[in-house]
Design brief:
843 residues, alpha+beta, Helix Hairpins, Alpha-Beta Plaits, five-stranded antiparallel beta sheet, three-stranded antiparallel beta sheet
Length: 843
């Protein structure tokens, strides 16, 4: 089923190209008998004929040519006998019968109907296509004229003299030019070998020998089989294998460019020497005769064109010097490309040059056209051979991976199956369009092909330069990284995004250039007032807004982080903690502001009227402000509390009657962790006062109540000595700021004396110091027999006929009686211990 489809594509291509070249004229009724119009003759042609007839030699040559043509052409075929009735014109006196007239003029379609117009147009196009095909097929019959021309060239002494004169002079020019070119090649051999044996080390940036670099870099133990440049192209064994080296980066390709250009100049110097010698010899008597000079110019220009084309090919693929290769292909593929470029250049360029030389020696124009078509056919056949040889490697390259899914993978797999059919169809159609002499058909196809190749090549070079410059600009040096610690991380965050943006921009420019080169007038889309111009203006404005937003965001973050690092490295730990607490809120507010501005700018540029959006946002803001006053109050109160450094994460605070450690501060709430593990979430609007115990100082209170009879000076000295001992203890030396501040006797009553003071501590050591002080004080008092008094309660019980109460004589007795009271007869004093709730040392 593939060959009928292939033939159908060819027929459609030829028919479409022919129909495009010839527009159908208006249909008009033809007369019954038309006389052939007399051929027109221009004055120049008439003068040329007169010159031939007046010159004896030219007239003789012209007559000999006509005789040869008459002998070579076959006799005309005998025309069949035509009936007299059909050959003789109808007499006006004998009109046709109504039946015959009706039978010849019956048309099943109405005049000027759609069907009639379609049929007439199709008939005209088929007629034009058939005439073009017949005219092109007649080219084959022009080849016998080549033999006539060769016989004439061999029999004409004047033509032989001109041919021999041009031949030996051309050989002399080529001999001298080749000798000078060879000398130039030998003179530059050392420079070429030096470049072939050098490469730029990507690690050190210096030029090193390839052997040295290969010794320092381990490679896979894969045998490298090189393909010579003159290897036969019909053998594809080993060709198009994946390159064993990894793909060079754009920066590495940019570093290769100066060496590649230097190598190109070295290759072009011998070509320039050949051209200088050749054109110099043409200025001598060697190029005196016009025909000889034109022959030498044609052959020499063909040779120079081939040499320059091969130099450009070697510059790109560099078959003998992989380190200077700009295209990432293997050595075998580079050699294959070089071989086929040389063959196609020799066939095309020298074939065209030889046909033009033939015109100088009287080659018939018809034979000239036939030879050009033959040369083009051979070149296009070579292209078809190339496509058939590389169909499998290219198919493997186009085919998606085994794990790939989706429409893109299906498209790639389908392209891998049919790409060579499409390529062969395009190549054959290219030759057919040119061979059938479709108006501007060949030029259009070549224009599309060459412009596509040029645009894609320039886009690739632009991508290499732009991406290489981008990679170099994002490379952070050690000094800059040490000065700005987070700069490298932020640069790595935006580097892939910018590479994608640059690739998309270059691809967009390449697409517009391709559309313009294909004749679609893409540049007209971007005129002032057109959709393309407005789209580009909007994209540029949005891009500038995004760039400014990113710059503001990164500058703000960098400033905050630098400020935080400076505070952390210094002694202002509290301010650093406060800034760290405020950092999420500040970043969120800044991000919302930037996103709002950029979003409104983008919507405005794409044509959305943001006036109603702003009005609606204002109305919604007012409604939210009235409906959520507490939310706004939470936010504002929280911002002020944080700015005033009222609390930080980790502080022990008392807020709204609840105490706990601050675990988290959000934009509107405080989260406290109480001592028993419970969590309190308090909105900022409920905060009226904040008690923070973590503000640098935490004083441990000292309050001791002893018996009235105890010596207060002795008790004070004991307390001071206890604190002094604690300051010598390493566990408490860092949290106690001073000695005991003994304030003195705070209270004296009938039975007790209270002594107070404080120990100045840090906020984190207050409770530990106070508990340790109480423990040591209790042990010291117990050792010395000091009684810590508590509240006493005296109860008098009246007993009738009881003996009078006798005051205890022991002053250290626990019973205490009021000396100013008289129990009277029958009263018994009773001493009770204090209630359990009254026991203990109260702060």
């Amino acid at each position: 089923m593939r060959w009928p489809l292939w033939l159908l594509l060819l027929v459609c291509a030829v028919g479409g190209a022919t129909a495009h070249a010839q527009s159908p004229p208006a249909v008009a009724p033809a007369p019954a008998a038309t006389m052939p119009s007399a051929p027109t003759l221009s004055p120049a042609q008439a003068q040329q004929v007169l010159d031939v007839l007046q010159d004896d030699r030219k007239r003789a040559a012209f007559l000999a040519t006509l005789q040869d043509i008459a002998k070579a052409l076959p006799p005309p075929a005998a025309t069949p006998a035509v009936p007299v009735a059909s050959a003789a014109p109808a007499s006006p006196a004998a009109p046709a019968t109504p039946a015959a007239s009706a039978g010849s003029s019956v048309l099943p379609l109405a005049p000027n109907s759609l069907g009639a117009v379609l049929l007439l147009g199709l008939s005209h196009r088929l007629t034009v296509a058939s005439s073009e095909f017949v005219q092109t097929a007649r080219t084959v019959t022009d080849f016998p004229l080549l033999g006539i021309w060769l016989r004439h060239l061999a029999q004409n002494p004047q033509a032989q003299r001109r041919l021999l004169d041009a031949g030996w002079k051309l050989g002399l020019v080529l001999l001298f030019g080749a000798a000078v070119e060879r000398l130039a090649v030998r003179a530059l051999r050392r420079s070429r070998r030096s470049l072939d044996g050098m490469r730029l080390d990507c690690r050190t940036g210096r030029r090193v020998r390839i052997a040295q670099l290969e010794e320092s870099v381990p490679v896979e133990s894969v045998p490298m089989e090189s393909v010579p440049v003159d290897a036969p192209a019909n053998s594809t064994d080993g060709l198009f294998v994946p390159p064993r080296r990894r793909r060079p980066s754009p920066a590495a390709l940019m570093r290769r460019v100066p060496f590649v250009l230097l190598r190109l100049v070295i290759d072009l110097v011998p070509v320039g020497a050949f051209a200088a010698v050749g054109y110099g010899l043409l200025a001598t008597p060697l190029g005196g005769e016009e025909t000889t000079r034109l022959v030498i110019l044609a052959v020499m220009n063909a040779y120079l064109t081939c040499r320059i084309l091969m130099c450009a090919t070697r510059m790109m693929v560099s078959p003998n010097s992989p380190p200077l290769r700009l295209v990432h292909v293997s050595d075998e593929t580079a050699a294959y490309i070089t071989v086929w470029v040389r063959r196609l250049a020799i066939i095309s360029i020298f074939g065209y040059a030889l046909t033009e030389v033939g015109l100088l020696f009287g080659l018939y124009p018809a034979v000239h056209d036939a030879l050009l078509k033959l040369v083009a056919l051979v070149a296009h056949t070579c292209l078809v051979i190339i496509v058939l040889q590389i169909r499998r490697p290219v198919a493997d390259w186009l085919r998606a991976g085994a794990e790939a899914r989706g429409p893109y993978a299906v498209l790639r797999n389908r392209a891998a199956e049919i790409w060579h059919y499409v390529a062969i169809f395009y190549i054959v159609a290219l030759w057919l369009v040119w061979a059938f002499e479709v108006e501007n058909g060949f030029a259009r196809l070549w224009h599309v092909f060459l412009s596509t190749v040029i645009v894609v090549t320039l886009a690739r070079l632009a991508a290499i330069v732009a991406l290489g410059a981008l990679d170099r600009s994002f490379r952070i040096g050690p000094d800059l990284a040490a000065r700005f610690p987070g700069l490298e991380a932020r640069a790595d965050r935006y580097h892939p995004l910018l590479r994608g943006v640059v690739s998309v921009v270059i691809g967009a420019f390449a697409l517009v250039a391709l559309l313009q080169a294909w004749g679609l007038g893409a540049l007209l889309w971007f005129r002032s007032g057109q959709l393309g111009g407005r789209l580009v203006s909007a994209l540029l404005t949005i891009a500038v807004a995004c760039a400014v937003a990113v710059a503001v965001w990164e500058a703000s973050n960098a400033a905050l982080e630098r400020r935080l690092a400076r505070l952390t490295s210094g002694v202002q730990i509290a301010r650093a903690a406060r800034l760290r607490t405020l950092l999420p809120i500040l970043r969120t507010a800044l991000f919302i502001a930037i996103l709002t501005v950029v979003g409104l700018t983008a919507l405005s540029e794409i044509g959305v009227n943001i006036g109603p959006l702003l009005a609606g946002a204002g109305i919604v803001g007012v409604a939210i402000g009235f409906g959520s006053q507490k939310l706004v109050q939470d936010f504002i109160t929280g911002i002020f509390l944080l700015f005033e450094n009222a609390m930080q994460v980790g502080d022990w605070v008392t807020v709204s009657g609840l105490s706990g450690s601050v675990e988290h501060l959000s934009i509107r709430t405080i989260r406290l962790r109480a001592g028993d593990g419970s969590v309190h979430i308090i909105p900022f609007s409920a905060v009226t006062s904040v008690t923070n115990t973590n503000r640098g100082i935490g004083n441990a209170a000292v309050s001791v109540t002893v018996a009235y009879e105890e010596d207060t000076d002795r008790i004070g000295g004991l307390l001071t000595s206890i604190v002094a001992e604690m300051r010598t203890d390493p566990a408490f030396a860092g949290v106690i700021s001073s000695d005991l501040q003994l304030w003195g006797v705070d209270k004296v009553d009938a039975a007790t004396v209270t002594i107070v003071g404080q120990i100045v501590c840090t906020d984190t050591g207050r409770w530990g110091v106070q508990r340790e002080f109480n423990r040591r004080m209790k042990k010291r008092f117990q050792e010395l027999g000091i009684t810590v008094a508590g509240p006493m309660q005296r109860v008098l019980v009246q007993q009738p006929h009881a003996a009078p109460a006798v005051r205890p004589s022991d002053p250290g007795s626990d019973s205490v009686s009021d000396p100013g009271s008289d129990p009277g007869p029958g009263s018994v004093p009773v001493t009770q211990s204090p209630a359990p709730a009254a026991l203990g040392n109260r702060e």
